[in-house]
Write a structure and sequence with these properties.
single chain; mainly alpha; Cytochrome p450; 2 domains; 2 strands; iron
C-alpha cells in the first residue's frame, strides 16, 4: 500500500513538473511575439507621424536612408515627386549620422529662380562638391565656381554657337546614325536578337561626344559592339566618383589613402583616362606645330579650338586645363543625351498615339520633298535643319520626356552667407 501511494505521488509530481515546464517554455515565445507586435506598432505610428511632419520618417543613426533605398528600387522620379508634392515642393533630407547626406531638397520654381538666377552668386557648387569630383573633373566647368566658371563658360559658349562647331556636331552625328546605329539595329532585327537600347544609345553618344571633344573616334558603336578601354575606364571613374557622395568624406579619403574599395577602382580608371587624354593632347599639339603652323587644320573639335587659344595672360593653355575641358564635356554630353533618348523611346512604346503623330509629321516633310521634285530614298533620308525646326510635335514630345524624366534631375548647391543675403 505504501509503495503504491509513493509511486502514484511520484507520477503526479512528474506530471505537474511537465505541465509547469511547458508553460514556462511557452512564456518566452509569447513575450517575444508581444515585443515584435509592440515594435511594429511603434514603427508604423512613428513613420506616419514623421511622414506628415518631415516628408519621410527619420531613424536614429541611419536617418532617412531606409526610405531612400526603398524609393530608388522602383520609379525614383515618381517617388521623389510624390514626397516633394506632399511637402509643398521643399523638404529637408536627413541622411545617416557622420555622412554628407544632409540637405534641403526643393523643386519649387520660386526657389529655383532664386538659386539659379536672382542670387546665383550666393549659391556656388562649393568646396565639398569640388573636392569630391576634383580627381575626375579637375578644374573643369562642372566643378568650377566664380571667375573660373565664367571664363570657361564664356569661351565654350562662343565655340558652341559657331557655325563650324554646329557643322561638326551635325556631320558626326549623321555619320554615326547612318553608318553605325541603323546597321546595328538592322542586324539585330534580322537575327531576331534583343537589343539593350540604353547601351546602344550610350555607345552612340560616347562616340559622338569624343569626336566633338577630342576629334577622336573611340569606335564604341562599331559592329560587334566591342568594349573600348577608354570608354570602360571613363564609366568606372564616373561610377566610383558618384559613390563618394554617399560615403562619409573621412571614409572615402581613408580608402583613397589605402587604395582600397571603389577608390582603388577610381585610381586605376583615372590612370587610363589620363593616359588617353594626354596622349591625344600631345599628338594634337604636334599636329598644330605648337604655333600657327596648324592654322589650316579644318577640325573644329574642342581640343583643337582650345589648343589654339590663349589664357588671360596670353599664354597657351596647359595640358592639364585641356584635359579637364575635354573630360568635363564628355561627361556633359555622354550620359545626358543617351538617358534622354532612352526615356523618350520608352515613353513612345507606351504611347502609340504620340508615335503615330511623330511619324505623320515626318511623312508630311517627306511628302513636301516629293512635291518639290526631289527623289526620296527613305533609308537614306537626312533631315535638314530647317525641316527639323518644323517638327513641332517631335520637339514637344522630347520636351515632355525631359520634363517627366530629366537627364540631370539633381543639381548640387551650397550657400555663401553674406550680410543682407
Amino acid at each position: 500500500m505504501d509503495t503504491a501511494v509513493s509511486q502514484n505521488a511520484t507520477v503526479a509530481a512528474a506530471a505537474g513538473a511537465g505541465s509547469g515546464g511547458g508553460l514556462a517554455g511557452l512564456l518566452p515565445e509569447v513575450q517575444t511575439l508581444e515585443v515584435l507586435v509592440a515594435v511594429s506598432i511603434f514603427v508604423a505610428i512613428h513613420s506616419l507621424r514623421q511622414r506628415r511632419t518631415q516628408g519621410l520618417p527619420t531613424w536614429p543613426v541611419v536617418g532617412m536612408l531606409p526610405s531612400l533605398l526603398l524609393g530608388i528600387r522602383g520609379d525614383m522620379y515618381e517617388w521623389i515627386t510624390g514626397v516633394l508634392k506632399a511637402r509643398g515642393g521643399t523638404f529637408t533630407f536627413r541622411g545617416p549620422w557622420f555622412t554628407n547626406l544632409q540637405c534641403v531638397v526643393t523643386a519649387d520654381p520660386r526657389n529655383l529662380e532664386h538659386l539659379l538666377k536672382t542670387r546665383f552668386g550666393s549659391f556656388p557648387k562649393g568646396p565639398y562638391f569640388r573636392d569630391t569630383v576634383r580627381d575626375l573633373l579637375g578644374d573643369g566647368i562642372f566643378g568650377a565656381d566664380d571667375e573660373a566658371w565664367r571664363r570657361q563658360r564664356r569661351a565654350a559658349s562662343l565655340e558652341f554657337h559657331s557655325a563650324e562647331f554646329r557643322a561638326l556636331t551635325a556631320s558626326s552625328l549623321v555619320e554615326l546614325v547612318h553608318g553605325r546605329l541603323l546597321p546595328v539595329l538592322a542586324g539585330a532585327e534580322a537575327a531576331g536578337a534583343a537589343v539593350d537600347l540604353q547601351d546602344v544609345l550610350l555607345r552612340l553618344t560616347f562616340d559622338n561626344v569624343c569626336m566633338i571633344a577630342f576629334g577622336v573616334d573611340p569606335g564604341c558603336l562599331r559592329p560587334g559592339l566591342p568594349e573600348i578601354p577608354f570608354a570602360r575606364a571613363f564609366e568606372d571613374a564616373t561610377e566610383a566618383t558618384t559613390l563618394r557622395f554617399v560615403t562619409p568624406t573621412a571614409a572615402w579619403r581613408a580608402m583613397r589613402a589605402l587604395g582600397v574599395g571603389h577608390e582603388r577602382v577610381l585610381r586605376r580608371s583615372l590612370a587610363a583616362v589620363d593616359e588617353f587624354a594626354y596622349d591625344v593632347i600631345r599628338r594634337r599639339r604636334e599636329e598644330l606645330g605648337g604655333d600657327d603652323a596648324g592654322a589650316g587644320r579644318r577640325s573644329s573639335d574642342l581640343l583643337t579650338v582650345f589648343t589654339r587659344m590663349r589664357d588671360e595672360d596670353g599664354r597657351p593653355y596647359t595640358d592639364k586645363f585641356l584635359r579637364d575641358i575635354c573630360v568635363n564635356f564628355i561627361l556633359a554630353g555622354r550620359d545626358t543625351s543617351s538617358v534622354a533618348l532612352a526615356w523618350f523611346f520608352w515613353l513612345l512604346r507606351r504611347n502609340p498615339g504620340a508615335e503615330a503623330r511623330i511619324l505623320e509629321e515626318i511623312e508630311g516633310i517627306l511628302a513636301a520633298r516629293k512635291e518639290a521634285g526631289e527623289v526620296v530614298v527613305e533609308e537614306e533620308v537626312v533631315f535638314r535643319p530647317e525641316e527639323v525646326k518644323r517638327m513641332e510635335y517631335l520637339h514637344a514630345a522630347l520636351s515632355e520626356a525631359l520634363r517627366l524624366y530629366p537627364s540631370v534631375p539633381v543639381d548640387h548647391k551650397e550657400v555663401i552667407w553674406r550680410e543682407n543675403n
